[in-house]
Specification:
Helix content: 25-40%
Strand content: 15-25%
CATH class of the largest domain: Alpha Beta
Order of helices and strands: EEEEEEHEEHEHEHEHEHEHHEHHEEEHH
CATH topology of the largest domain: Rossmann fold
Number of helices: 12
Number of strands: 17
Radius of gyration: 24 Å
Largest sheet: 9 strands, mixed
Structural class: alpha/beta
Distance between the termini: 32 Å
Number of domains: 2
Length: 440
């Protein structure tokens, strides 16, 4: 079994009775509190020789949910919410859930929206905050984008951010974002602890690429897959209804190809999936171009789904980074379209190539129902964790349970598609593409 230290930090011993009316009694038809001795295993893989004995608490994942005793007096809480990084379906749903739970379940009346990401905490930008109440957020759930606005960067000026947090007397910070956001949230918490400032920092996993470690699913991912399937359907129609039609769809996935893999499984119309985790060749008898040619000879059309981070060795990179520190990628979709057209032109074979890039349409879309449900539950569990005095915690879904995950683990590595996993095996089965698009 894989063992990790899942120990959760807390600001102090909770001793205030929760205002939430729940139960600790079984079979009374009233929802129960969660206790700090309820856990799940992270690694559930076993065989007939596996021996599971008593495990240390630190190797177990603490269940999320409302505690009977809380750390913060709701009347004295000043909570803040910040959304950072790129847009993602469900941001407003999470904001809505956090505000509604703070206000109606705990009676918190001071909730501040930090505008435009971490920049909203830096004085040089002069960005005002927003007072968040149920009336202010009443219509935002189910809509795309974020009421608070977002931005990349700013995470390198941690002391100034903590200055602002102290000046506003904020004692609970909800950070909604991905890897870069969580690194910033962790640094803010560490700086606050160094100063002796009692600040609960709770993260909510937002990365459309689904690449946060130890997190079964980040919100917005299922919406991204759903809309990517629509793009694939369009590419398939365009390719199918002409002789030797080729449709290319590029989706997000800088280092992780989960959107591409899941879209291929959901669609059934994809013939080739290219992701960053699985190397491929363009040229050669077993490369992509020759494989497309064989596909056209049999079926007269082909659909290629490519993650944005795939094949970067073919397109060249500038070496530049964005404000979040991410490498700026070359456009693999445009490269494929040009090279495929050139290849078949050299063979004097007429093809029609159509290229679709739905990336920003997907990011700004409202969430589908399953994501809205997920966002509601992430937001409520984030509030429960904060009020109980947990800190440096990401609300994560592991083995279909909501848990408290140390942010330090969530940012320790990226979640990636394992080429030897059942997921990728099923993608190969679904598409019928070669096991490897290379001569190796």
């Amino acid at each position: 079994m894989e063992m990790y230290d899942f120990s959760i930090l807390r600001l102090g011993e909770p001793h205030i009775k929760s205002p939430i009316l729940l139960s600790n009694s079984p079979n009374d038809n009233i929802a129960n509190f969660v206790t700090d001795d309820q856990f799940i295993l992270y690694d559930i893989n076993v065989n007939e020789k596996t021996v599971i004995g008593p495990l240390e608490k630190k190797y177990l994942l603490e269940l999320a949910g409302p505690r009977e005793k809380i750390f913060f007096d709701p009347a004295k809480v000043h909570a803040a919410i910040v959304t950072c990084g790129g847009l993602c379906p469900g941001l407003n749903d999470v904001i809505y859930s956090i505000v509604m739970n703070l206000w109606h379940r705990y009676g918190v009346r001071r909730i501040t929206g930090i505008q435009y990401g971490y920049r909203g905490l830096l004085p040089e930008f002069g960005i005002p905050t927003i007072d968040l109440t149920p009336d202010v957020i009443a219509e935002i759930h189910g809509t795309g984008g974020t009421l608070l606005g977002s931005s990349r960067g700013g995470g390198e000026k941690i002391p100034f951010m903590v200055d602002a947090i102290e000046q506003m007397n904020i004692n609970v910070l909800f950070a909604i974002g991905g890897d870069g956001t969580m690194r910033g949230a962790l640094a803010i918490s560490q700086e606050a602890r160094k100063r002796g400032t009692r600040l609960a920092v709770i993260g909510v996993p937002k990365t459309i690429d689904n690449d946060l470690a130890f997190c079964q699913r980040s919100f917005g991912f299922e919406t991204a897959v759903s809309l990517a399937v629509e793009a694939v359907e369009s590419a398939h129609v365009e390719a199918h209804d002409v002789m030797n039609g080729i449709g290319i769809v590029k989706v997000m996935g800088r280092e992780s190809g989960f959107i591409a893999a899941h879209t291929a499984l959901a669609s059934g119309d994809v013939n080739f999936v290219l992701i960053p985790e699985v190397p491929f060749e363009i040229e050669g008898e077993k490369g992509l171009l020759a494989s497309i040619k064989r596909r056209l000879e049999k079926r007269h059309h082909a659909v290629i789904l490519v993650a944005e981070g795939a094949g970067q060795e073919f397109v060249g990179q500038s070496g530049e980074t964005d404000a979040s520190g991410n490498k700026k990628l070359g456009d693999i979709g445009l490269f494929l379209r040009k090279r495929i057209e050139q290849y078949f032109d050299e063979l004097d074979i007429e093809v029609t190539v159509k290229y679709i890039d739905p990336s920003y349409m997907i990011r700004s879309a409202p969430p589908i129902t399953t994501d809205s449900i997920y966002c509601a539950r992430l937001g409520s569990n984030a509030v429960h964790a904060a009020m109980a005095g947990k800190t440096e915690v990401l609300i994560s879904l592991v083995n279909n349970n909501f848990v408290h995950l140390p942010i330090r683990l969530a940012v320790s590595k990226r979640n990636k598609v394992d080429p030897e996993s059942p997921l990728w095996r099923d993608v190969i089965d679904r598409t019928g593409q070669p096991l490897l698009l290379s001569g190796k």
